[in-house]
Structure formats: C-alpha cells, structure tokens
Amino acid sequence: MTQKLASHSEDFSAWYNEIVQKADLADYSPVRGCMVIKPYGYELWEAVKHGLDRRFKETGHVNAYFPLLIPLSFLEKESEHVEGFSPQLAVVTHGGGKELEEPLVVRPTSETIIGHMYAQWVQSYRDLPVLINQWANVVRWELRTRLFLRTMEFLWQEGHTVHATYEEAEEETLRILGLYKDFAEDDAAIPVVSGRKSESEKFPGALTSYSIEAMMGDKRALQAGTSHNLGQNFAKAFEVTFLDENNETQYCWGTSWGVSTRMVGAIIMVHGDEQGLRMPPVVAPIQVVVVPIYRGDDEKSLVLASVAQLTAELKDAGVRVHLDQREEYTPGWKFNDWEMRGVPLRIEVGPREVAEGKLTCARRDAPRGKGKSAVLRTEVTKEVGRLLAEIQQSLYDQALAFRDSNVKEPSDYEELKEIVQDGWAYTWWCGGTQCEQKIQEETTATSRCIPLEQEGGEGPCIYCGERSTERVYFARAY
Amino acid sequence: MTQKLASHSEDFSAWYNEIVQKADLADYSPVRGCMVIKPYGYELWEAVKHGLDRRFKETGHVNAYFPLLIPLSFLEKESEHVEGFSPQLAVVTHGGGKELEEPLVVRPTSETIIGHMYAQWVQSYRDLPVLINQWANVVRWELRTRLFLRTMEFLWQEGHTVHATYEEAEEETLRILGLYKDFAEDDAAIPVVSGRKSESEKFPGALTSYSIEAMMGDKRALQAGTSHNLGQNFAKAFEVTFLDENNETQYCWGTSWGVSTRMVGAIIMVHGDEQGLRMPPVVAPIQVVVVPIYRGDDEKSLVLASVAQLTAELKDAGVRVHLDQREEYTPGWKFNDWEMRGVPLRIEVGPREVAEGKLTCARRDAPRGKGKSAVLRTEVTKEVGRLLAEIQQSLYDQALAFRDSNVKEPSDYEELKEIVQDGWAYTWWCGGTQCEQKIQEETTATSRCIPLEQEGGEGPCIYCGERSTERVYFARAY
Known about the structure:
The structure is a homodimer of 478-residue chains. Chain A has 478 residues and is an alpha+beta fold. In chain A, the strands form seven sheets. In chain A, strands 3-7-8-14-11-10-9-23 form an eight-stranded mixed β-sheet, with helices on both faces. In chain A, strand 10 and strand 11 form a beta hairpin. In chain A, helix 2 crosses helix 6. The longest helix of chain A is centred in the C-terminal third of the chain and has 25 residues. The first copy, chain A, is globular, with a radius of gyration of 25 Å. At the A-B interface, strand 2, helix 2, strand 3, strand 4 and strand 5 of A face strand 2, helix 2, strand 3, strand 4 and strand 5 of B.
C-alpha cells in the first residue's frame, strides 16, 4: 500500500485510477462498466447526500420513490427524450420465467414515469407546486467507463417538480442550481461556475439546461450537477394538467435536476495531490486520525490510555475521529497511509506529548513536512475545530487560485486552440451550433456553459467573428 | 377524502388497501406489481432507515454499494440459492442496443455478487470480520402483489458479513436479530417474537435462518425481518477464503440479514384502527399537527399569530410539527383528515385557548372523543414531549395486549385448526417437515418461528404426537 503512486502531475489519469482503488473508495465489478462503492467511498457519498438532502428539505422539497422499471413505450412519448436515451438503455425482456409482452427499461432517468404519476396526482392549482426528489440508482449503457465519473449504473438524486407557470419553473430551476453551487463550494470546497448549457449540450427534452462546472486537477472541466427547465414538454407528453383559478385547464411547467456519484469523482480530482487524496473536512469520512507512538510496554500503556481519552473527547465534541491502533504497522507507515487517504488532520501522540501535555497536529492541506503545530492538550477540542475550518477554507482557496490561473481569454481562435490544450478558454461566442461543433472537432474542447454572471458588452465570436453578446467557457471535459 | 373507510374490523384487507392510498403513503404504478412510495410513506421509510442505520453503525457496521445487475451464472454457483430465486428473476437481455452475451439479472438479493467481491478483498484473518450493509432496491417477480407487503420491486437493507469462525457468524446473526427486535419494539412500537425458521422456511442457501414475527391487526403474522447464518455455503461457492493465524487457508463463515419496506406495511397493520393510521411518535413523519380555529378576521389574526409562534417553538425543540393553515377546509374536516393520517398528537388553538393561555391536546391513541386535555401554553414543550412518550408506550402496550390475547395453546390438533382461523397457535412440534406441510395444507397456517426463548420441557408434537422438545408458532401469514 505504500509503494509510490502514479504521478499526479505527470499522469493524472493513471493517478486517478490508482488512488480510487488504493484508498479503498471503489472497485471494479465483474459486470463491465459497473462499480462497487467501498465503505470509505460510500461514506463520502453519504456526506454528499446529507449536504444536498438538508438543502432540499430546507427549501420545501420532499423525497419519494418511483419504480426502477419503466415501460419502453413511456420513453417514446417525448421524441427528443427517447432519441437521447435509446442508445443507452438496459432492457428487461423476461420476468418470472416468461417473455414480457412489453419490454421494460431499467430507468436511465425518471421524467417519464414521474410524469405519468403527476398526471394522476395533479388536478387543481391547489395541488401545485409538487416538489419531489428521489434518491435512486439509474443505468445508462456506457462503453467507456471510469470509476465514479462514468459508470453504467450510478447513484444520484433526481428532483422533479411541476408548477403553474413558466416563471415559477424557471425560478425553481435556478434555485436548485444555486443549492448545487452552495453545496459544491461550502461543503465540497469546489469552486464552480453556474451557467446555461448550449442548445446541443442540453438535456433531451428540456427547454433550457443549466449546470455547475468545476476544474479538475488536470485542468479539464467536469459537469458536477445539472438543473433543467423542462417547459411543458413532458406535461404535454404525459397530460399533466391542472385547473387554474379561472377553472381553465392548463399544462403544468416542469423542472428536473440531478447530482450523482460523479461528485465523489470531482472531490477526488479537485483536491488530490502527489501524496493522494485530500478530503475537505465538511465531507471527510474521517476528519481526524490519531496515531499513537511508543516503544516498549511502559510507553505503550501510557500513550494508549492518553489517546483513548483524547479520541473519546473529540468524538463527544462531534468530530469524526479514528484511532489507528494497528500493531503491525509503524507510525511512519501510518502517516503515509492516512495522507494517501486524505484525512484532513493527523494527531501524533508519543510519550513526550503526554509528558508535556501537548499534541502534534499535522495538516494534510499543507506541503509535505510543513503544517505541523503543537496544540495544548487542554485546548484540543477548540483547536481541532479551528484547524478543520482553516483546512476547509484553504482547500477551497487553493482550488480557486488554481482555476483562476488556468482560465484564459483568447484574443483569436489560434490562441483558443492553445489554451484548451491546458486550461479553460473564456470567450465570446455567437451561440451558433455550427461554430461550437467546429471548435469541438478541431480542439476536442466543448462548450461548458454560458455563465449566468456576465460582464455585459459585446464582442466578435471567437470562431466566425459575428457580433455576440455572451461569453462562454470552452474546455476539454470529462 | 372524508368519506368512510372500509371497516378495519370487518374487512381488514380492504381497509389496508384503502388507507395506504387515502393517507398518501403509496400508489399503484403503471408497471404491474411495482409501487410508487409517496412522500408521506417515504418519510416513514426514512425513519425506519434512520433507526436501523444508527443501530448498525453503533455496532461497527459500515455501508457500501454493489451493482444492481448480476451475471446469471453467479446465481447458479449456489444450488439451493438459484433454485429458490430462479422463478422470481427479472432478466436484462439487451443493453446499448445489442443482445448481451450473458444475460444479467436484476438483483433479487446480493449474496452472490458480494461473495464474488469478498473473495478478492479478504486475504488474511486480519481482514476479518467484514461488516458491510447495503441500502438498495431489489426485484423479485411476484404475481400477487400488495402495496408495501409484497411488491415486485422493494427497498431494503441487506447486511452481508464474513467471519473467521462459525461461532462469530452465529453471534453476528443473533446480534442483528436483537437489533431488529429492538428497532421494532422501541421505534415502531411493534412487539415481536424472535425465533428460528423451520427447515422449509429458511433462506435458500442458509444454514439457519432467524426472523422477527409480528401480529397484524387481523391476527395474521408478518415476518418483519430476517437474519441468516449462511455457514460456509456462499464462501465455498465463491472461494471466499483467508489465511488463519497458523497460515492455513480456511473458508469464511457468512451471514446476511434484511429489513424491507414491508416494515412500513407492518406499522400500518399493527397500529391502524377504524379511523385510519396511528403512527408511533418515534417514526411518525409528523408528530404534532397544529389546527387553528377562528371566525372572522380579528380572531384569525390573533390565532394565526399564536400558532405561528407555537409551531416555531415546537420545531426548535426538535418536534416534527406541521401547521395546517389550509383555508378551504373546516377544523372538523382537518381533525378527521389528520386522524386518518395517524398523526399522534393534535393541538387545537382557538381564541379561547389564546385568551386563557391554554392549548387543547388530542391524542390519536385514545378512543375517539377521549384523550383530550388542556395544556398550559407555557408548559407546551415539556408536555408535548411527555405526551408523545406516553403515546409511544401506549401503542406498544395495546399491540402487546392484542397479541397476547390472540396467542393460544391448543390441547390437540382440532383445537389448533380452530385457533389459527383467528389467531396464533403456540404448540409442541417434532420439527418434521412432513407434519409442518400437513398442517399448512389442512389449515393454510405456516410455522412462523421457533422462539429463541423456550420454557424448556417436552411434549407431544401437535400433529404426529412424537415427543418433541421445542415449541413453535403456527399462524396464517402475509
């Protein structure tokens, strides 16, 4: 476990694949394209769930659960939707030993079956809005997969709401985008850009799609969450109507939005370094690891008694603390191991620490060998809280500085080509699908999003030179 | 919504089907046999999850996630297992537009794929025990389905552990059975019998199966949780081995255990009455509903200001409280509605209550029209806490008294036949599969479990008269 990792700076892709397995976050499964989420990775996902679920509930959303299996005919009711998802479907043709009359698809997303139910549940304007979220697994047949980033089956939340007006649906779509940004920045310490997707990048069946985009450690972009204004497309396909206050029948306006186990991949790729993972304290499965150091039985009993009390004290204070009492490894080996696993703070306790009433704290966010400090034993709870908050902020600041130094504004198309080889380009774009496709073909970079916050003004499209009023990010992406 | 429910005492089955839909717990789905869990039902399931998950984590278990789709060949590696589950499989034959080389089954349970992974993860005795739980959906093709009780897809937790010895596996199996009993009794207010399943009722592939059994409102039994000692069966099928302290290769000893959305059905069926649901406060999505009562604008502003403050105060105290401000319904209509939905405590606030500094509290566990009391406004937080604890205890006591009065000891087989028409029979049984089958054929009652706590002694088998040393429950079951 302590052999050297692939280099983060030289071969990021190999580094990622290795660290996910070495740190026991996930494993490959015998079913091609599916993954096994191991306990350490699942705890990270639970922290993501917790952070999002809390925000959904605070804004009036409730959870529900809809069936995994969907009649194939349902998908066919919305033409863009079925076109988008058909190539990715897993199809159940047999059940209970018999061939089915109509094949069932394993849900790739649930707009259709939820639309079908909403048509029955919504009658009057009094029933609106419906603000439902679902935590579920979905399956999309993928040929090129990668642990957490793109897997055939993945876990996610999918919110599905219906409203009386376009304005309310648009407001909801943006409210959720705001929650996603909030979670990414405050909990996962990942700075993100919120913006609108281009026509060609939007969700099949949506009116408008929005996303949050984050820069990974190799400067590629990753779409970390999406929120869609579905307009009346699914309402019309599934007859989701209501009687308004004037007793007239209207179609509902819908939204859908999701964050998946990809977010775990983002946390790994944004914060990791040559030594391995670096977990933001708010979502870290283990925030503090305590490593006892001793030689001989006398020191051992002294130190172990001390760390047991320390661990209990931190636990009582609500800190997620782990005491590493393994006897088969040296302290040095453990330091490396927990660094690789990204635990934000390590506390070393030897006989000297016990005698002096001090503890040695080592921060994972600092360069190796730095970031050590002595903390008074009597102050430990307060100091650990302070250090964890500092580490959270420092990881965010590092990621922000990294992103800012790798976003550039090209003065012409040749410069854009260079920039997207190793960063993001922020540039004027006419909004035309043709220019977007040409750029993608010639650079492999895609339009990521048209940020909500624009400086205004106008400029020439980086590709065709037409006058344009919005700027966009182009980047190579996961 | 206020039309009369089917009668709880006269047609329990119709009552159940109606209340599940009327109280917005669940709905039928367009896919035969699948259900939609609506927000109110899902919140109840979240409370079940929370109560169990906490107990698992306190006893050293961790969560993980394994793939939904399992190669068909995996199931075939354990002969009893495949025989048991084959008739119930949903099979994916096509993915990404192509026919698959090997069909994949939608997991009916995960022993096989988890066994496959454990074979790779476990090398040495130092890796043991592995104590993993998974929260997941599973699919079993069922022809006769019923919301929550028996659905094609259901949600559950499935624990899968491996150990170095038989003794440890058996200890774990019984530890979990204890947690299940603890949850059922303390959180769900459902008295249960813990016991061993007969040979014919055990899990396909297990050495020994245990269950908790509860009596529903119609005196039928429901298996509310199971815990299995798998012996080395799956370890042998999947080569899950470890090097012991003497460096010798050994097969691991396994367990698996699960509680599903059936538990929600049990909560409905144990506590419900003629008026509808009765939710135990510990798991109730809404513990307290506040209903304002007023005529005219003056009273309205007075009362609404008062209930807003009351609701905020209870919320701050950690009570799950809901304020029913709907204007289109009368207070009387609301009383019926919340009774039907089973909210444990209702607080009525009118101008008189505001003037006198008192509140009217109505308990759902008391007979209709009784259970009202006046509570001082200044004491409300304390009093609500006390009342909720009393209601929790009272629901448990009522269920226990009901069960105790409907378990009878037959003196001969004729008497057993009568007892199981309307209750449970507790009786000596030789343990023979033949006697068990005859009883089932002649009475439709099945052996539920051989309770762990036995009075000792011996007696004649109720069917064949052979000397036997254990007693068993026979009952008609869900």
